[in-house]
Specification:
Helix content: 10-25%
Radius of gyration: 35 Å
Largest sheet: 18 strands, parallel
Distance between the termini: 100 Å
Shape: elongated
Number of strands: 45
Length: 724
């Protein structure tokens, strides 16, 4: 060895003078440079091991002259170029590992290059391409074949069936295909096979039931992200020694087969990101060795098996993004559970006090469900918890003080619930807390100002109108208990009471005169709880956007009636993204409706948006539009009702023009955009053409946006009333 500086060294050319050398093992050093050509002079060499260095350049074809070489290990280097064909012609070779380099080219197809003594061939993590030659089966004693993470293409050769001693087969992350997946019928001849790794290949086929005829020694079966479709074959339950089954990221349909329950020593199960449906079989509780289960992003319905608490080996549960409705109480008894993700389901009920039994848990995500009740104070006993999300539920009550005892917390998301009370000061002691979100609740009082709260922005607290303090919120009112302050408080309270009395008398008198008053502050700004609603829920609520639920259509989309699992009825405005201007209209409506709150404006409940789908979920108006009543033979509005609706619209316009900090111009006022609730109260809707005018813009934005020279019947009176 020659030292070249910084702890690095090179292999000298003179190494070729050691003609009687039998083993050369220089693994785990800092060797740089190339493999010297003189190494071909080591005619007695049986083992050459340069693993885990920084060698570069090509593999010298002269190594093919080492006829006694049995072991060639060059993995974890920076070698490039192709494999010299003569290298694989060394008949004595038993083990070749060239993984984790930058090698390229194709494998030799001539049968003479594949010796029968070869037991190990590891070419993983390179850039090899072309097809896997069928002649590779000439190495009939091969036990470990690893060709993963390359660029091999074409079909997996059925000749692999001749490798009867094969134990370990890794072909994942290539571009291999096999439309009929006949390879599995071929591999039934390999009775010693323990591991099949075919993930991340476009196999593009249906799993045959013959998969159950594979070796009963099979321990690992991974076909993740391989374009597999159809159902999971029942025969898979015959692989009685299987401990790892990964079929995630495919297009599997049907149910989770009950035959999986026969895999008694299964430890890892991944079926996520498919289209599996129907309830889970109760017999899954027989898998007493199960450690990791991921069934997320499917269409699985029903309840979590009631016996799940019997699987005490469970450490990680991912059932998020399904259609589950109930959590089994036994789930809370899994004291060794580390991760529990059940978000984006239809779970109902409350969080039980037994929550605290999960004393090893590090991550809990129950967000986007319909959970109600309060957050139990026993949650503070989860001392190892790092991640907690209960967002987008219907939780009420206060944030427990005990949350401040959870010293390991890094993320807490309690947003979009109905939580009230104050944010506990005890949370200031959570030194590792990096992400905190309690937005869109009904919290009040002062925002804590110490510890991690020094780094949180207003986004963490928005939608809680009664919160104060912090850098971006209104200052909190403080009262010193001096005699003067007490006197001032008494005077203000008395004045407030007097105003309330006179206000009540005035309202009473106006009502006696038959006039309808403008909405009060409480009516104009009702407490709103935003609920996260998924596309799947919308699809179910509208029965697949069935025409029988169609309420109407417009220039930018259609409106459907949706009845959700919790009994809530909403109007769902679905935007046609193929129409020019629809996306802009959606953005405008979101911008307007998220800021405006008034009794006579249509209330937005939520939105659902992704790259291909955008919808607004609005308050449902059972009496339809004003246009329907004005032009219907079986509906009638008397003069008083018509006048009341005109007043409702006028109040809405007054609020848009004068009651909000920015002038809002509706631009499309007509009877079809005035919706009537069950009491025939008018609600102005459809803000797709709305303009928000900043200071000084009112003159610049006066052009007509709707039909030129046309005013819908009934609009003249509405505008006239508003002007008066």
């Amino acid at each position: 060895m020659v030292i070249v500086g910084d702890g690095e060294s090179i292999i000298p050319e003179k190494i070729g003078n050691l003609r009687k050398l039998q083993e050369l093992q220089l693994e785990n050093n800092h060797i740089v440079g190339s493999i010297p050509l003189s190494i071909s002079n080591l005619s007695s060499l049986t083992r050459l091991n340069f693993n885990t260095n920084n060698l570069s350049g090509v593999i010298p074809r002269e190594i093919g002259n080492l006829h006694k070489l049995e072991i060639l290990y060059l993995q974890f280097n920076k070698l490039s170029g192709s494999i010299p064909e003569v290298l694989l012609n060394i008949s004595a070779l038993r083990g070749v590992s060239l993984a984790y380099n930058n090698l390229s080219g194709s494998l030799p197809s001539a049968s003479g290059y594949w010796g029968t003594n070869l037991l190990l061939l590891n070419l993983g993590e390179n850039n090899f391409g072309g097809v896997i030659p069928a002649s590779i089966s000439n190495s009939s004693n091969l036990k470990d074949l690893l060709l993963n993470d390359n660029k091999f293409s074409g079909q997996i050769p059925n000749s692999l069936r001749d490798l009867r001693h094969l134990e370990y087969l890794e072909l994942f992350n290539n571009n291999l295909s096999l439309p009929h997946l006949s390879i599995f019928a071929s591999l039934t001849n390999c009775r010693n096979l323990t591991s099949i790794w075919f993930a991340d290949n476009p196999l593009n086929g249906v799993l045959p039931d013959s998969i159950g005829n594979l070796s009963t020694s099979m321990e690992i079966f991974d076909l993740s992200r391989s374009e597999i479709r159809g159902q999971i074959p029942l025969g898979i339950g015959n692989l009685s020694n299987l401990n790892t089954l990964f079929l995630s990221g495919n297009d599997l349909t049907g149910s989770v087969p009950a035959t999986l329950c026969d895999l008694h020593i299964l430890q890892g199960l991944r079926l996520d990101n498919n289209r599996l449906s129907e309830p889970l079989p109760e017999c899954l509780c027989k898998l007493t060795e199960l450690v990791f289960v991921n069934l997320s992003y499917n269409h699985i319905s029903g309840t979590i098996p009631s016996c799940i608490g019997n699987v005490t080996s469970l450490r990680n549960i991912y059932l998020n993004s399904n259609r589950l409705t109930n959590i089994s109480m036994s789930l809370w008894s899994l004291k060794d559970l580390l991760v529990l993700h059940l978000s984006n389901n239809s779970l109902v009920g409350s969080i039980p006090p037994d929550f605290r039994n999960l004393n090893a848990i590090t991550s809990i995500d129950l967000s986007q469900n319909h959970l109600s009740g309060s957050i139990p104070s026993t949650i503070g006993d989860l001392q190892n918890l790092l991640y907690l999300s209960l967002a987008y539920n219907e939780l009420q009550g206060s944030i427990p003080e005990s949350l401040g005892k959870m010293i390991s917390l890094e993320l807490v998301n309690l947003s979009n619930n109905i939580l009230s009370g104050t944010i506990p000061k005890s949370l200031e002691s959570l030194r590792y807390l990096k992400d905190f979100n309690v937005s869109f609740n009904r919290l009040e009082g002062e925002i804590p100002s110490k510890g991690p709260f020094l780094n949180f922005t207003s986004q963490s607290f928005m939608g809680n109108e009664e919160l104060c303090g912090g850098l971006l919120f209104r200052p909190c009112m403080t009262f010193h208990h001096s005699r003067r302050s007490k006197l001032l408080l008494i005077i203000l309270a008395s004045l407030g009471a007097a105003v309330m009395v006179f206000g009540s008398i005035a309202v009473f008198m106006l009502r006696r005169r038959g006039n309808r008053n403008a909405p009060t502050q409480a009516e104009s700004f009702p407490a709103t709880t935003l609920t996260r609603i998924s596309y799947i829920e919308i699809e179910r609520a509208t029965q697949g956007f069935d025409q029988c639920n169609l309420l109407g259509s417009g220039g930018f989309g259609s409106v459907y009636k949706g009845i959700f699992a919790n009994g809530m009825t909403l109007a769902i405005k679905v935007f046609n993204l193929q129409v020019e201007g629809a996306l802009k209209s959606f953005d405008v409506e979101c911008e307007v409706l998220r800021n405006l709150r008034h009794r006579n404006l249509t209330k937005v409940i939520s939105s659902c948006t992704n790259l291909d789908f955008k919808a607004l979920l609005l308050e449902y108006m059972p009496n339809g539009s004003l246009e329907l009543w004005l032009h219907s033979d079986d509906r009638f509005l008397n003069m008083i009702q018509r006048l009341d609706i005109m007043i409702d619209v006028a109040y809405a316009l007054e609020y848009l023009h004068h009651g909000y900090e920015t002038v809002v111009v509706h631009s499309d006022l007509k009877p079809s955009n005035v919706l009537l609730d069950e009491k025939l109260v008018g609600h102005l809707s459809d803000f797709g053409l709305t303009k928000l005018l900043g200071e000084g813009e009112s003159i610049a934005h006066t052009k007509t946006l709707a039909t030129m020279g046309y005013i819908a019947p009934g609009n003249f009176l509405l505008v006239l009333y508003y002007r008066i």
